[in-house]
Amino acid sequence: MTGGIISIPFNTAASMISYLKGSVLKKGAKSIILDVQNVGYLVNMPSSQLEKIEEQQELELFIHTNVREDDISLYGFCTQEQWEFFRLLLGVSGIGPRSALEIINVPLAHSKQAIAQRDSAFFIRLPGIGRKTAERLCIDLEGKIKELVLTGEYPAESHHDDVVTALMALGYKRHQVTEGLKKIPNQIKDEEEIIKLFLKGI
Fold first, then answer.
1. HSE-up (13 A, CA, CB side) for residue 61
2. What average pLDDT does the chain have?
3. Distance of CA 141 to CAs 28, 135, 137, 168, Å?
4. How far apart are CA 84 and CA 122, in angstroms?
5. Nearest to 83 by CA among 27, 43, 123, 30
6. Among 96, 36, 30, 32, which residue's Cα sits nearest to residue 67?
7. For the whole model, what pTM was predicted?
8. 26 to each of 23, 31, 42, how far by Cα in Å?
9. Would you say 194 and 181 are in contact if contact means Cβ atoms under 8 Å apart?
């Protein structure tokens, strides 16, 4: 065997790792180190999922291996649905792994509905997503998104983005807000009333 760089075909490299199970050795702001049989894997994850994870926690992740000429990076997701959607997003011109993670931070039902309705403005407000990319995203993925809930409204448990932002400013984690808002009756629309009921634990 002679020295030199071994070239790995892209399709082979990208399918090297698709699933990992282990314990969280270290948790960072944007990633974790997952200990799998004494081997540590650096896995990038959406911040909405990182909020729910603790060090030493046992974890199973669906993995996307992103391959570039100068880097091989791992991106992990707690559900297969998120993993599949992430891979769909990467197929859209102008969307890289970091932009795709920002989209994954939004509840999937919201993103899917926005795509189905070609609501590009929904994605423009996300970091790293410009107008042309948002429009292309809706056009490219409209026909690939299945099992959409086309009710004309976003899922009731999330209510308004302003409510989520206000509650997170009070110190709540995103997953705590999401779970708590599920208890709020759908007929209540006033944001101040929603927040008051949330704080009461209703």
1. 30
2. 81
3. 32, 10, 6, 31
4. 20
5. 43
6. 96
7. 0.67
8. 9, 9, 9
9. yes
pLDDT average, residue stretch 122-129: 89
pLDDT band at residue 196 using 50, 70 and 90 as cut-offs? confident
| Whole-number Å distance between alpha carbons of 150 and 182 | 19
pLDDT for res 160: 59
Q: Which two tokens stand for residue 138?
A: 């809706």
**Encoded amino acid at 178, one letter:** T
Q: Which residue has the tokens 């308004």?
A: 160
Amino acid residing at 165: T
Written as six digits, the tokens of 98 are 């970091």
Could you tell me which CATH class the domain 80-141 is placed in?
mainly alpha
Local confidence band at 189 (pLDDT 50, 70, 90 cut-offs):
confident
Class in CATH terms, 10-77: mainly beta
